[in-house]
Amino acid sequence: MNHVTEERKQSILIELEQKGKVFVNILSEQLGVTPETIRRDLASLEEQRLLKRVHGGAVSFRGERIEPSFEKKRKIRQAEKKHIGEAAAKCIESGDTIVIDVGTTTLELCHAIHNVENITIVTNSLIAASTLNDRLEKKAFSGEIIILGGMLHTAQQSIKGALTAQMLNSFRVDKAFISCGGISQGYVSDFDIEEIEVSKVMMKISRESYLLADHSKINKEAFYLIGEMSLFDYLISDIDPDKEWKSLMKENNVTWITA
After folding, report:
1. At residue 8, what are phi and psi to the nearest 5 degrees?
2. Any idea what the CATH number is for the domain that residue 51 is in?
3. What gap in Å lies between CA 74 and CA 185, rounded to an integer?
4. Distance separating alpha carbons of residues 201 and 169, to the nearest angstrom
5. Residue 65 lies in a domain
6. What is the pTM of this model?
7. 119 contacts 92 by C-beta, under 8 angstroms
8. Closest to 69 (Cα-Cα) out of 103, 101, 99
9. Are strands 173-178 and 151-153 parallel, antiparallel or unpaired?
10. CB 192 within 8 A of CB 153
11. Quick one: 147 and 49 in the same domain?
12. Full residue range of the structural domain in which residue 23 is found
């Protein structure tokens, strides 16, 4: 393999990391080679499990199974997550009952809740509960916090399992704020099957469901399926949807909110 080919492949991977999806015709123009050359590069990169070819281009490799620890994730794209959390907090009104999923983006929502009264928050995130308690003491908002019981998931600082899901079935709430590992082709996925079962119940008991996902989650898949995009009412992200995603949102009757 010559040096020029390797440099071109690296350029493709950098573009993919930045955009989430690359297109053969655009890469051909940008890199000054034929579409056939780009297709050969994409085929080679797919064999190395560095991307997944789709019609007209490629997306990041799907089916990731290993989830980074909570603390490691927390340091990644903090600014984007903060903006998403702030946008999500604006959707909460005084008197609301809400449920908050585990995640670094939903944690930013907890930091952003303010100037609302008499809200009830249910969560299975230990760090979210601690953050909410601090803000409650500082009178950033007023209300109650309910922590779900179950099995401790140390790496994600959360509670999960059948007992957690069973407890959730006792509630009916106005809004659910859900995190994910990836969104692709109208499907939402995540890393931990037991946490996913909890997320599913959160959505089932809620009048409205909000999906919080920064741009790195778009056109990516984690290993376990949460469900179809149509199960959500809103998607809050740090970028505007492109033409393809606008069409997908319309098909699934989901409102995209740009933070």
Report:
1. -65, -40
2. 1.10.10.10
3. 26
4. 7
5. no
6. 0.73
7. yes
8. 103
9. unpaired
10. yes
11. no
12. 3-60
Residues 75 and 30 grouped into a single domain: no
Single-letter amino acid code for the residue at 215: H
Dmax over CA atoms of the chain, in Å, equals: 65
Both tokens of 153, joined, read 């998931």
What is the end-to-end Cα distance of the chain in Å, rounded?
Answer: 43
SS3 content of the chain, % helix, strand, coil (to 5): 45, 25, 30
Going residue by residue through the chain (259 aa), what tens digit of pLDDT does each one get? 567 888 898 889 888 877 778 899 999 999 999 999 999 999 988 877 678 888 889 887 655 554 555 666 666 788 899 999 999 999 999 999 999 999 899 999 999 999 999 999 999 999 999 999 999 999 999 999 999 999 888 777 889 888 999 999 999 999 999 999 899 878 898 888 888 889 999 999 999 999 999 998 998 888 788 889 999 999 999 999 999 899 999 999 999 999 9
